[in-house]
Design a protein that fits this description.
Elements lengths: L6 H6 L14 H7 L4 H7 L1 H8 L1 H7 L32 E8 L18 H4 L7 E8 L9 E8 L4 H4 L14 H10 L1 E9 L5 E3 L7 E3 L5 E5 L18 E3 L7 E3 L5 E4 L17 H6 L32 E4 L9 E3 L11 E4 L4 E7 L3 E3 L1 E9 L14 E8 L4 E6 L16 H6 L1 H8 L4 E2 L1 E6 L6 E5 L21 E7 L8 E9 L25 E6 L5 E5 L5 H4 L5 E5 L9 E6 L5 E7 L5 E7 L37 E7 L8
Parallel strand pairs: 7-12
Antiparallel strand pairs: 1-30, 2-3, 3-4, 4-5, 4-6, 7-8, 9-10, 10-11, 11-12, 13-14, 14-16, 15-19, 16-17, 17-18, 18-23, 20-21, 21-22, 22-23, 24-25, 25-26, 26-27, 28-29, 29-30
The structure holds MU-OXO-diiron and calcium ion (3 copies).
The site of one calcium ion (CA) has 4 residues, from loops.
Length: 661
């Protein structure tokens, strides 16, 4: 078996390692800081009280609180069994088609994909690599159309070793030229693609659409707004204003606002910076975020803004949320600094009771935190009036108590020690160093928070804690040491209001195989051999209140489940609460991202990221790292001269009804 790891696997392992910090609370500190919120418990009812007894088991009992119990046939589709092979799978009662692949032309002047003669100019007009988040904005805007809309897609990162013929196994640094780096940069960022469903029921990309657009770190100018915009710590030699920045990268999960803008997260931005930091004042800040990466993309050899010796403050211009208006192809995307700066997984949102917007966000690294931003102003029905809504509000970080309650702690300058005594001179400093501010408030370190989503059908919020191999000390929300499998936290906002600062929580499932008692998984007792999963990552929800969970086991798939990554429906209410069923299984080496329904639920888009890349050393019969010429699968083209290509798959039900029944 080859010990050689692929390009992507080497980066992926770094999420598991905690970042250096000086103020992380110990478990004992967390216990001491615990707040007994008895009045709140009474207010929220039985679910919270049960949670105090046993958060994991309570979750199954709590379902009798649910007003409308879902029927036990909540799944309504044939299960896809566990397994691993080179293709994707959907149930026999569903159909799947490839909608768009890496390299497919999307702008009017885009050349056809020629993988052996790729150029940065071509890539700038073609669909990018490693599709992650998918948002759907119905067209015309304001309609609930489910046959025409804009797909807003993140291209998180590149697997350079699978993109280029001749990529060397040894000394890959020698391979990079300006053009190779620019191709990678052009394959990052995002795509806006108009899609439409024809009379034959098939979805297609609308090639001539005026909306189609690429956003990249190579060629898309963006602005910074909010409290940190223009701050000296965001000023560089290239941008003395601290208000203009070239592009975005490592965009993972995301969100669509009620006014139809697209929120792009910036996740593992540290992997793009190299060189010796030349600004002593930023040393601790960079260290807390892992800048420079212990392994980095070589962009800094060709673009000096990624070289810390030349531009030591450039990293401070990443880690934000970017707001993009997909309905205006000429619009300039805006980085909204009020939402803080960290390795942000996603930004799904919900309205508060008084019509403000709450945005939930995870910081995906071992022992990092869960955040929420609540706007100061209300969402207006007039689209233009929301243009600056995300520039003012309160950023909170979560503290989970072992009794099943929790508190949102405000990250506000001047409060709770976030002041000069701790080196914060303004709200800008608090936002630039969000992690350090959260450390000081005693936020709860979590098992790698990935996607977070409110469930509109129930008002509850779900948090994917994907895994944490390094954990040794446990607590109620992170209950397992050496956690290879992850867990899903269910949050009930106090008073059912996303603006509230209190919540009750429980673990709806502890992932992994329930037939292996030694790993401590917890599922509904009805869970069968194929009705469980490991390493939850991306979420969406549906009208039945089901949580759709996409998994990312990375190279650890073999130990975590022995099955390829997939997309599962998880029942959150009724007698089946806490059991799951797989509707989509990815080809070997891929993770599943971006699950996204059309408004009527009859189409499901899923993003297959990095096919053939992860953990192929454990793929029986292959047992080595994939390369361009020798990949573990040629999905989805299955042509010997075409490498695997990250792609979006469209899933529909054969009966024309909602996907998943
Ligand atoms: Fe990009 Fe946290 O996965
Ligand atoms: Ca990913
Ligand atoms: Ca993710
Ligand atoms: Ca992930």
């Amino acid at each position: 078996m080859s010990e050689k790891k692929s390009f992507g696997e080497e980066f992926e392992e770094l999420d598991d390692r905690p970042a250096a910090r000086s103020t992380a609370p110990s478990l004992a500190d967390l216990w001491n800081r615990r707040i007994a919120r008895r009045g709140f418990l009474t207010g929220i009812g039985k679910a919270a009280l049960l949670a105090s007894a046993s958060p994991a088991i309570l979750s199954l009992a709590a379902c009798d609180e649910t007003p409308k119990a879902a029927p036990d046939d909540i799944f309504g589709f044939e299960p896809v069994p566990h397994g691993v092979d080179g293709d994707h799978h959907v149930p026999a009662d569903h159909l799947s088609e490839i909608l768009i692949r890496w390299g497919d032309p999307i702008l009017r002047d885009a050349p056809d994909f020629d993988v052996r003669n790729q150029s940065a100019a071509a890539q700038l007009a073609q669909f990018g690599y490693n599709n992650d988040f998918i948002g759907f904005v119905p067209l015309p805007f304001g309609s609930h159309a489910s046959d025409r809309g804009l797909l807003c897609v993140h291209h998180e990162y590149t697997n350079d070793d699978l993109m280029h013929p001749g990529y060397p196994a040894e000394n890959p640094a020698s391979f990079y030229t300006q053009e190779i780096v620019d191709i990678a940069m052009a394959a990052h960022g995002g795509s806006i693609v108009e899609v439409a469903r024809g009379e034959d029921g098939k979805w297609q990309v609308v090639r001539e659409s005026e909306y189609n657009r690429r956003l990249t770190p190579l060629a898309t100018e963006m602005t910074l707004s909010g409290p940190a915009a223009g701050h000296p710590r965001l000023q560089t030699n290239e941008d003395p204003t601290g208000r203009r920045v070239m592009g975005t990268f490592n965009n993972c999960a995301g969100g669509i606002t009620p006014w139809g803008t697209w929120l792009m997260s910036e996740e593992n931005f540290n992997f793009y910076f190299l060189g010796e930091n030349s600004d002593e004042a930023e040393k601790e800040n960079h260290k807390r975020l892992g800048v420079p990466g212990s392994r980095s993309y070589p962009w800094g050899y060709f673009h000096k803004r990624f070289n810390l010796a030349a531009e030591p403050r450039e990293p401070n211009r990443y880690g934000w949320v970017v707001e993009v208006d997909p309905l205006d192809p000429a619009s300039t995307p805006v980085k909204r600094t009020a939402l803080g700066r960290f390795k942000r997984e996603g930004c799904e949102n919900a309205l508060t009771k008084d019509d403000r917007l709450a945005i939930y966000m995870g910081d995906d690294q071992a022992f990092e935190y869960l955040y929420k931003f609540v706007t100061a102003g209300k969402v207006s029905a007039m689209r233009a009036e929301n243009a600056s809504l995300l520039d003012e509000g309160t950023l909170y970080v979560a503290r989970f108590s072992d009794d099943g309650t929790g508190t949102w702690l405000p990250l506000t300058f001047g409060e709770n020690g976030l002041d000069e005594s701790n080196g914060f001179a303004s709200q800008a400093d608090v936002l630039i160093e969000t992690r350090r501010a959260a450390d000081l408030l005693g936020a709860t370190p979590l098992d790698r928070p990935e996607d977070v989503t409110p469930n509109p059908a129930t008002g509850r919020v779900y948090v994917a804690l994907t895994n944490s191999k390094e954990r040794t000390e446990t607590n109620a929300v992170n209950p397992r040491p050496g956690n290879l499998w992850g867990q899903i936290v269910e949050i009930e906002p106090q008073g059912g209001d996303h603006a509230s600062t209190g919540f009750a929580w429980n673990l709806i499932v502890k992932c992994g195989d329930p037939a292996s008692p030694e790993i401590g998984a917890a599922w509904n007792a009805d869970t069968g051999a194929d009705g469980w999963f490991a390493c939850p990552d991306n979420f969406t929800t549906d009208a039945k209140g089901r949580l759709w969970v996409a998994t990312d086991q990375g190279s650890g798939w073999h130990a975590a489940s022995g099955s390829a990554d997939g997309l599962y429906a998880l029942a959150t209410v009724g007698g089946k609460r806490g059991t799951a069923r797989q509707i989509f299984r990815a080809p070997v080496g891929a993770e599943v991202c971006g699950p996204c329904f059309t408004p009527d639920g009859t189409t499901l888009f899923v993003a297959v990221q990095h096919p053939a890349a992860d953990g192929t050393a454990n793929y029986q019969g292959f047992e080595r790292a994939s390369t361009f010429d020798d990949p573990a699968t040629h999905w989805p083209d299955f042509k010997p001269d075409m490498p695997p290509r990250p792609s979006i798959v469209v899933i529909t039900a054969r009966n024309g009804g909602p996907v998943g029944g």
